């Protein structure tokens, strides 16, 4: 069975990686006022953060329409028998459900929707792994089983400069946002059961950073090989400093740097920092 991989734009995979591994992207969008922009197509991450600073209102985000999925799947059916469609957590977006619905509407290709239960480059790791296996001729069921295996070792933590965007966007309760802002805490956040929840409340950014490093160390001390990604909200220099420190500390971990693009950046805000990892 000839299989191809689709993921959405919130995986923030480079164009080079997408071409090399034949990964197809379906975009989510950000909406400023009455103008909608497909992320990574109509608006770059740099342009987005400039607009975000200038905008008085928080932009909105929208998922791809079912019709966009149907169109993509039908186009892929001309060359492939099956598609594995890997998407950001269904607890924070309806994108995965859109793939499910479209898959039921298309008869020309077998669709395997997959809920990564996460987002950003960790979702990208899943798409990369699936694409490599597809290129080697692995069956879709074997690829899904491998993604489940990766998911069991996945951990990711992030912190934001301001909880306001998460609360306004409905991704964090008003009470949690209020507690964070009143006490000036830097809560570590993570995804549990597909939704964003606080992991620990920490008073300073420095201590929150140290705690994230410590959490990676709890897994890395086993000596096993890991892939990790430092993810930043328009803070590349800070991400490079993290990478330098972490590489010196954990030689068994392969580090890359990625970013919170427009859709995820809308909810986390500029200045967010995160670290995620999976066992190789």
From TrEMBL:
Keywords: Lipid-binding. The keyword rRNA processing does not apply. The keyword Transmembrane does not apply. One of its GO terms (molecular function) is lipid binding. It comes from the Bacteria. InterPro entries: DegV, DegV_C, DegV_domain_contain. NCBIfam families: DegV. PANTHER family: DEGV DOMAIN-CONTAINING PROTEIN DR_1986-RELATED, FATTY ACID-BINDING PROTEIN TM_1468. This is DegV family protein. It comes from Fervidibacillus halotolerans.
């Amino acid at each position: 069975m000839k299989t191809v991989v689709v993921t959405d734009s919130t995986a923030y995979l480079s164009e080079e990686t997408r071409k090399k591994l034949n990964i197809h992207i379906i975009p989510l969008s950000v909406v400023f006022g009455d103008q909608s922009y497909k992320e990574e197509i109509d608006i770059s991450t740099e342009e987005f953060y400039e607009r975000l600073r200038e905008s008085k209102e928080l932009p909105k985000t929208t998922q791809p329409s079912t019709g966009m999925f149907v169109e993509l799947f039908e186009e892929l059916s001309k060359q492939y028998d099956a598609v594995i469609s890997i998407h950001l957590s269904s607890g924070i977006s309806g994108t995965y459900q859109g793939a499910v619905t479209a898959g039921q509407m298309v008869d020309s290709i077998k669709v395997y929707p997959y809920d990564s239960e996460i987002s950003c480059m960790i979702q990208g790791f899943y798409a990369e792994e699936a694409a490599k296996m597809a290129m080697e001729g692995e069956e879709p069921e074997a690829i899904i089983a491998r993604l489940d295996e990766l998911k069991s070792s996945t951990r990711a933590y992030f912190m934001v400069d301001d909880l306001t965007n998460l609360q306004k966007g409905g991704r964090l309760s008003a009470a949690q946002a209020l507690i964070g802002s009143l006490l000036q805490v830097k809560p570590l956040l993570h995804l549990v059961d597909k939704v964003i929840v606080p992991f620990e409340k920490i008073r300073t950014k420095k201590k929150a950073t140290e705690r994230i490093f410590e959490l990676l160390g709890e897994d890395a001390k086993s000596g096993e090989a890991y892939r990790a990604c430092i993810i930043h909200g328009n803070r590349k220099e800070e991400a490079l400093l993290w990478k330098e420190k972490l590489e010196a500390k954990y030689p068994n971990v392969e580090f890359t740097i990625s970013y919170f693009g427009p859709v995820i950046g809308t909810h986390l805000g500029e200045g967010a920092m995160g670290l995620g990892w999976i066992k190789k």
